Amino acid sequence: MFTATSLNERNDQVQRRFRLLFLVMTLLLVLPVLIILTLLVVRGAPAISLEFLLAYPKSGMTAGGIFPALLGTIFLVAMALLFSVPLGIAAAIYLSEYAPDNWLTRIINLAIINLAGVPSIVHALFGVGAFVIFFGFGTSILAASLTLAIMTLPVVIVATRESLQAVPQAFREACWALGATKWQTIRRIVLPNSISGILTGVILEVSRTAGETAPIMFTGAAFFLPFLPESVYDQTMALSLHLFVVATQVPDVPDHLPYGVALVLVGIVLIMNATSIGFRTYLRGKKKW
Amino acid sequence: MSTAPGPGLRPPEDRLDLAWITDKAVQVLMFIGGISAIIFILGIFAFIMREGLSFVFDRFDFLEFFASIRWAPTSNKNPTYGALALIVGTASVTGVAMLVAIPFSLGAAVYISEFASGKTRETLKVLVEMLAAIPSVVWGFIGLTIMNGLIIDLFDVPIGLNVLNAGIILGLMAAPIMTTIAEDALKAVPDRFREAAEAMGATKWQMIRQVIIPAARNGLVSAVLLGVGRGFGETMAVLMASGHAINIPDSVFDSVRALTATIAAELGETAVGSDHYGALFALGLFLFLVTFAINLTADLVVRGIRKQ
Question: Does domain B91-271+290-307 have CATH number 1.10.3720.10?
Fold first, then answer.
């Protein structure tokens, strides 16, 4: 009935070309991830063994394992979460449940955007000026994890706020209508219905925190320590800084060693990230409303 | 736990029960959490000022800082603090990064938002997120090893740690966040715009070019701005991949040194309170103000669309 005119055909052709162009661009963007991961696995896998994960570095960090760095990263991430998760959730609850649409709320939102946008090395300077010197924590796990916590706070706030806002308003209204206070509503209705979304955000934060290097360089992570930290006032090694050190600062490192460290770091970060994404997809499928 | 208030009208004194008090206390706690982001931003500014202020007042020379390329804080006779070469270094790396990131991330955003569907779209989005998750020190390591060798082989240059290397790495790092924001901006264009264009007989490409992209313009601009901010502030990757040599580059094959990288490389070696130490905090203050301005602009641009 309708036959395509030459103009239609030309338009279709133009469209096909652009579609292909954009597809190629998208692939060129995601291709590097796959290439990088393949290279890291191919070159790093030979270094990885149980001993590599559980031994101390030896011979001036040119041999041995990464145990203290691995454990240090876990300490730093755990401590950072201890500070940022309660604070981030409180901030998100305020923004989603209490905040009126006024100038203060706009400034809070702007501050969150900026907190995420301030360069990591500026966070490091802040950590040095505030926690290491002013509060007198010295270069310590405490100072480093506080710096990390402030830097990654926006991740928790944004993810939590989103999952709180996804709870339908009708749920809250039903609860208020029964005479519950605002906090009772939040605790019994809003939080239980959004807890999995919050968890997704927390996992994402773990992945971000574990990879950060600049903020911990001068606040609590050490190049090399022959022992494990005993308190939060001690320094610690960290996986991310360890990669920087073996890749740039130590002479005569065998090739496979930094690749092994990079593989472990990327492995942790991507597994965390994939968990978060998988969890989110699963929840989306399960959603009841 | 708490005595829940019963239904119906409550006498005034009943409002002072435990549930009511808890409710008010929690509201205050949440408010403190809410304003914590403001406190931290002000704190960052205050503490960097605190450490850098004596340098800014005693030693800081505006002309030297912005016009001299001699960054020699450790010189015994005549320490100078010219940051021009560092600013040019950061700008050139960010520039190359944007040449890489802008077309690819906007192209990818259009493809993911408008052309791809179902499983393909989800897969591509996950891959973009993975790209964003790779830590900056790992990118730096890739620049140092893989990209370095690649650039030396491909372009037959003696050193592969240069503007091109750091620029490409930085572009790949900035691209995912730009793609995500740009895709959100395209998604936010109401479907009735699309339906109207299709009803007029437009092909998908005509619709994208003439309806969707103009409608999402502000969001796309803000995506680019946030990408620039990202590039400007990136530290570890630039430190490892740029060659870290104080230099005004003639071509993309020259090594440069970035503002962020200078702080990262030198802070460990300075004595607290020295001029050099103060100078690094002055660099940090400059970085803070520039990224703050970029983020503020991006926010205002986005707010522009909401107003329409």
Answer: yes
